[in-house]
Amino acid sequence: MTEAVGLLGGGVIGGGWAARFVLNGVDVRLYDPDPDAARKVDEMLENARRALGRLTYAPLPAPGELTFVSTPEEAAAGAGFIQENAPERLDLKRKLLAAASKVAPPEVVIASSTSGLLPSQLQEGMEHPERLTVGHPFNPVYLLPLVELCGGARTAPETIDRAAALYRSVGMHPLVVRREVDGFIADRLLEALWREALWLVHDEIATVSEIDDAIRYGPGLRWSGMGTFLLYRIAGGEAGMRHFMAQFGPALQWPWSKLTDVPELTDELLERLEQQSDAQAAGRSVRELERLRDDCLVAVLQALRANGVGAGETVAEYERTLVERAPSPARDAFRWETRVLPEWVDYNGHATESSYLLMTSHATDGLLSSLGIDADYLRAGGSYFTVETHICHLGEAKAGDRLHVTTQVLGADEKRIHIFVRIARDHTLLATAEQMLLHVDTKAGRAAPASPEVLTRVHEIVEAHASQPWPERAGRRIALRSGAPT
To answer: How far apart are CA 183 and CA 119, in angstroms?
Structure first.
């Protein structure tokens, strides 16, 4: 991963890039002539920090430093990667890219966030144009993993490779466009849908809210997991895609849509769009709507991750990378701090049982990281699974409370690790969790000894923790005792 990124433009996309990089530990130098850019980007960064805190409990790195600079040359100076995010004006983008290319060394990759301009056009006027590629993201950049890569006539193949590697390192899914085309892939699809949606409003067939409902209650839910072609493959039943096309292909010739026409953007249509959109927003600010959007995206991404599908696979791989990069905690003091999030609290105002399980899980991830359970180890088929958990609730945690979670290793053998977790606020113990972890061969689907390297680290930690007092609640069981109140 590069140590610093230069950003040219800090609007919705540039601010999203700033958040994506900063929260992954990368220093950012950002140029934007807007005098209000710092405020806007800081607000986006706060939303991104909130969203990532909900998306993953893997250990995020220490955030990078965000610096606002006065010129594109200052943004490019010392950067190991440059991302341009100016408005979709060819002359403006060329000016910024040319200025950055005069400062950045020839080996520094320069990417443009353009949503449709051809990279060959953007390369004109640049020094070393072979290091330019399109790196087209999607809003919000800090959550959506897709980034389309498209090289121009003079783009070197290694430029695409290096850009893809950087994007993967911050949790993104690079999609290489096979050859130059206006709008690339996703925006061509989106524009077709958007054009037809405008016609439906123009012809007063549906309101903006009704059109959105048609997507979010139906095909939108399907698209997140399977896209388009796989869904139609399923619709063809056992006979597959050829049967589906035989059945529905002729309908493509019917004059249902107006995809080749554009409605005239008259004052009447613009007024209708504005009024209906304002009504749909129901008085909520842009930041409120962004947070709602982010919370929904987080929930969808987590569901996809649980099923190993689509963007969920990217999130899972990103988490494995975070675990691999996390610094190993001290062998005799495994400690993690967190804050009780509002969604962890139930109707009584207290943190839920599931939140204690999440905190315990995060503490266990820290332990496994220190043992060398990294991304390569997981890919090779080795991992520890939790096979038993016993939680004791001793106090109440409320939204906003700062908690610290500590892990003690009580014992281990070649397959098992016995751990005890304490969750406390200041010096008040709120909960304990005792767990047994079992090492498994995930490819064979059965328990197996850990690798010799991992076992060496396990025994080191067991020896280091042997001097700690045995926890009072360790080994307890649940039972009804004689004479207990009923």
So the answer is: 11
